[in-house]
Fold this protein.
Amino acid sequence: MNTRPSATSNSPAGQLYQRVRAHGIDFFVSVPCSLLGEVIEILEDDTEVTYTPVTREEEGIGILAGAYLAGRRPAIVMQNSGYGNIVNAVCSLVNYYNIPIVMLVSHRGSAGERIEAQVPMGNAVRDVMEASGVKCVPIEHPSDLDGVDEGISWALANEKSIAFLFPFSFWRDAETYVPEHR
Amino acid sequence: MRRYEATREIMNAIGDELVVCNIGHPSQEVFTLRDRPENFYMFGSMGLASSIGLGLAMARDRKVVALDGDGSVAMNMGTLATIGLARPKNYTLVIVDNRSYGSTGFQRSFTADNLRLEEVARGSGVESVAVVDRQAEIAPTLTRLLGEDGPHVLVVKCEPGMPEGIGVIPIDGMEVRDRFMAAVASGRRGSDPARTRGIRSLA
């Protein structure tokens, strides 16, 4: 039995992936998060995109900047904690050279979080994004995915990076979620 | 041999490859020696020259050279793991190792003591690792590597210090970006013989 998710899946991850791909986003890097597991499995299987895991979000931003300079449309898949690792790269590379990067960011520390240590960065992340010049669009539920379409169109047209924040409510019922790793 | 002399040998071996230049004095030296649209000067984001080069190499079937430094690679050592995983054949990372943080005043770096970046590179899964410490060997070694499938890491061991008279780059980031992107998109064979012959010799 093959239970592996696919790019055509109707799950929240599958729907998100289809929206992003429809804009020609074709070059991805990722750092793991339990909420993003399905997106990452889809990436691993999709032979139509260029994809690599990265050791740390900051090198991922460098790789994606190179991909954009070569004419590709890049995106990073990461947890909100990763935004704390990329602030200087966002300001002095991505914003300075007008490189539009799509950031698909799981929002740990949002409602439903059971790990206390995730809460401080969870609370800070939107302000940190805005302060570093990256528009932040929360997507609370799969029915809000039109916001991803509008955001990516805006980002590509204006050569600005944009971050979409996906809290627990996007992925599953927050009340029943038990994290895999404590 | 200082970084400047090493960089001159490296740029002599460059044909139509895309070249990503590290922040600060390394970019300024490349600009002085051989400016060309196929050079991307990274004005900020210390540590990410090797990552930008990796992204370029993964994105296009065109040869890419990143000119990085020992302090910068130490700041982003995960880059070697990712290069060793992604393994683009068209990528060469050159680490000019002068055992110091040159652009900030030549403070002692980690390779002055215990760090050996060639050993880290050998454990990362790249195709080949070469170490050169004689000036005459730099260009032949890089030329050989560029003719073979990579990814390659070339460590060039040199001394701290730089010539007088290297100034800041007089073009801004958007101009660097736009002319680089145009050069990549056109896929033209990049070297301008007049410029290549025009390599300048500073004190």
